Amino acid sequence: MRRISSTLTMLLAALAMAGMVVVPNVSHAKKKDKPEVKLEEGQVAVEEEVLDDLSDAAYLYMDDAREHFKEGEFDAAAEDYRTAASLLRLEAGRSAQKYEGELIEEAERMEKFADKIEDKAVANLEEFDKEATHAFQSLSEHHYERAMEQWAEKQYNKAAQSMRQAARQMERSANWGEQKIEKEYEDAIEDTREAANKIDKQSEWAASQVADNFKQLGEKIKKWGKKIEKEATEE
Questions:
Q1: What CATH topology corresponds to 9-24+46-122?
Q2: Rounded to two decimals, what is the model's pTM?
Q3: What are the 10-residue block averages of pLDDT along the chain, 235 residues in total?
Q4: How far, in Å, CA of 189 to CA of 182, rounded?
Q5: Which among 8, 104, 124, 169 could disulfide-bond with 139, CB atoms 3.0 to 4.6 Å apart, if both were Cys?
């Protein structure tokens, strides 16, 4: 996994905390041919390749937060958890408007939980892990919706990348902490990765088969999300 520099990550997180909205600056052409990104007040453009790493960076900060929490270092845990929440805000900035709000809500939920960590009000590691599981599930849903939009627009390589990220976040959600991912989810994740790799490698692939793989992942993401919500209401 490629980790963007901590300095850049913290800068991007600080922008999010200050209320700035990050929009992608797509750079597939030579610099002189790049389309001009028109920014509104309160927006900043960042290369899309950097934004692609944000969900992974959020995972790394949450993993660090968990280790700090286990050691009783609550201030450090809260700081890392807030940084992860800020990275979700940045990810939301490049979402379609109808999905942006859901990721913002998750970031706000994470910020409130970071306050709870700082106040030493989180009961135990199990409570911490349940919140992290919820956050990764939200990221999984977000990347899946992006992938489906890109697929509909015939942006197949982008859809493959987003679908792979959706699978990765679902795997993290289902495998976080002391959990062990169930086989039905593991199989759907593996099938999605194989389909995405075929697109990336420009191998022979049938659109209908790949679409079926992606649909299967979407069904498993939804099923896992319902399971998380049910467990939360039963507490």
A1: Methane Monooxygenase Hydroxylase; Chain G, domain 1 (1.20.58)
A2: 0.78
A3: 46 50 43 47 54 75 96 96 90 69 91 97 96 94 90 90 93 91 94 89 77 91 91 73
A4: 11
A5: 169
